[in-house]
Amino acid sequence: MNQKIISTIVIVGGGTAGWMAAASLAKILKNKYTIRLIESDEISTVGVGESTIPMISRFNTVLGINEDEFMRETKATFKLGIEFVDWGHIGERYMHGFGKFGQDLWTVDFYQYWLKMYQAGKAPDLEHYSINRMAARAHKFMRPPADMPNSPLSEINYAFHLDAGLYARYLRKYSEALGVQRTEGKVVDVQLRALDGHVDAVLMENGERIAGDLFIDCSGFRALLIEGALKTGFDDWSDFLPCDRAWAVPCESTEELPPYTRATARPAGWQWRIGLQHRTGNGHVYSSQHMSDDEAASILMGSLDGKALAEPRMLRFKAGKRKQVWNKNVVAVGLASGFLEPLESTSIHLIQSTVGRLVTFFPDAGFNQADIDEFNRQADFEVERIRDFLILHYRATRRTDSPFWERCRTMPVPATLERKMALWQAHGRLVRDDNELFAEDGWLQVLHGQGIGAGGYHPLVDLLGEDEVAAYLEQIAGVVNKCVQVMPTHKEFIGAVVAAGSARK
Ligand code: FAD
User: Fold this and answer.
1) Which of 151, 158, 162, 118 is nearest to 136 (CA)?
2) CATH number assigned to the domain covering 8-50+163-238+320-367
3) For the chain, where do the domains classified as CATH 3.30.70 start and end?
4) Under a CB-based contact definition with an 8 Å cutoff, are residues 17 and 224 in contact?
5) Torsion sign over Cα 294, 295, 297, 303
């Protein structure tokens, strides 16, 4: 059978989504397709989105990026997890660290042994069995050494904090070197084909007409093609995730340079702190139904670690997703595809996974509907499970101190989340549905960290004697502790990465 291939891909938007899509497609498609990217200097990018999850390393690997160079160019720091302050109850804190806990034993997961001993008051908190969490607490960091496969050090799992503007600039340089053609200017109209309603071309303010076969909508919250032109529709999830605004402001860096993002719960939302090499990014995400804009700004400005470096900026959003991320010949990537608040730093990951999925289902000129349907089914599954995990942070609170938290604590949640919480509360079981993004260790940390107790532990744990289990746990905690002691501080490690770059110049 003769398949007619497409030839021109048009990406509308040059924020993180546009340039990530351009860079990866240029690399993977090896110059066989014309890739054009349109961005407007007059329409600024969202300017936030600086905390990532470990999967971004795979993106860097696909691109063949040198990690040290990437860190210097984007003023990045390392991230071992997210610290949640005041979420379960005011005065409490826990971390959602990346990476695994302990070592599995026999057929039962590690955490089941820990649960039994913890419930009996015979084991310390979960974090003692995680290299990521213990290192983060001590502000230490190193990459996993390749020559120590049996050490907890080999299990260090990290992501990055990066400067979003510098990241887009870095990827632009990369993409243009691989032949991506950039057009500066504003899209003012979208032309549809009479035959099938596919997008035929976009019209620029200067009268230029840019035609294409496949269009990637990276125009941010404007969603120019997927919504503006194709009227795809939106599933609104704001009943579950009521925060709809954020103030964002950078401030001077602290001396400490913590290797984790901090998310501090506030009376009607939460505040992020992301430490970069040259500044700290801050933002206050809140529900406008529960707090005024002025009060939200004043909470943010009153709790910065250093001097503010700009005026705060307000961003408005609605939680939810496009009804079809791929509609006709348009694939929405980034904010154009929908939005989940940045509580677990998942948006940049969703850009990466959407582009990866597009490569898997890459179309020919026929745009097979079965492929598009499967792409959308997988996209929905991924984002709905992330949504559930985010809702968990709100629903699993014990706070009663404000109408916002009272609402979150008592709100109905999707059945998929209800089922998982019930399994945990009944018998301490955690299940991962297919390949959903957050695995058992993530759920464990949030449920336990926010004080949602497990109703038991796995019966097979009792096949081992209590002394044996205690010795096993003690040995793991001891090794983790020793490993953290030998690690350099995060600041020292970053210093070496930066210095290596200066030495090369
Ligand atoms: P944008 O950055 O808005 O880019 C849109 C582009 O489209 C721009 O280049 C603009 O010029 C162009 N454009 C628009 N209209 C036109 C037009 N008519 N003609 C030509 N060009 C046009 N994600 C994370 O992973 N981690 C985080 O910590 C995180 N924090 C966030 C905090 C907040 C408050 C918000 C709102 C988002 C956060 N995100 C985070 C999400 C992240 O910022 C985005 O996923 C990411 O920046 C991608 O944005 P984008 O490229 O889709 O859109």
Assistant:
1) 158
2) 3.50.50.60
3) 245-316
4) no
5) positive
Distance from C-alpha of 155 to C-alpha of 246, rounded to nearest angstrom: 35
Residue 162 near ligand 1, beta carbon < 6 Å: no
* pLDDT at residue 1, rounded to an integer: 58
Mutate to test the pocket of ligand 1, among 51, 190, 300, 335 (most ligand atoms within 8 A of CB): 335
- Residue 479 CB partners (closer than 8 Å, separation 6+): 151, 152
- Residue 132's φ and ψ, nearest 5 degrees, are -60, -45
- Ligand 1 pocket test, candidate residues 175, 183, 219, 249, most atoms within 8 A of CB: 219
CA distance 457 to 113: 8
Instruction: Express each pLDDT in 56-105 by its tens digit.
Output: 999 999 999 999 999 999 999 999 999 999 999 999 999 999 998 888 77
- Contacts with 415 (C-beta within 8 Å, 6 or more apart), sequence order: none
pLDDT band, very low/low/confident/very high, at 353 (cuts 50, 70, 90): very high
Among 24, 41, 48, 162, the mutation site with the greatest number of ligand 1 atoms within 8 A of its Cβ is 48
Does the CB atom of residue 139 touch ligand 1 within 6 A?
A: no
**CATH number of 245-316, picked from 2.160.10, 3.30.70, 3.40.1440, 3.90.1570:** 3.30.70
Ligand 1 touching residue 441 (CB < 6 A): no
Cα 308 to middle of ligand 1, angstroms: 22
Tell how strand 34-39 and strand 8-12 pair up.
Answer: parallel
Q: At 304, list the tokens.
A: 């910065």
- Give, in degrees to the nearest 5, the angle at Cα 323 between 317 and 328: 120
Contact 323, 232 (CB under 8 A): yes
Report whether residue 261 contacts ligand 1, using a CB cutoff of 6 Å.
Answer: no
Q: Is 100 a known active-site residue?
A: no
Residues of the chain with CATH 3.50.50.60: 8-50+163-238+320-367
Q: Does the C-beta of 342 come closer than 6 Å to ligand 1?
A: yes
pTM: 0.97
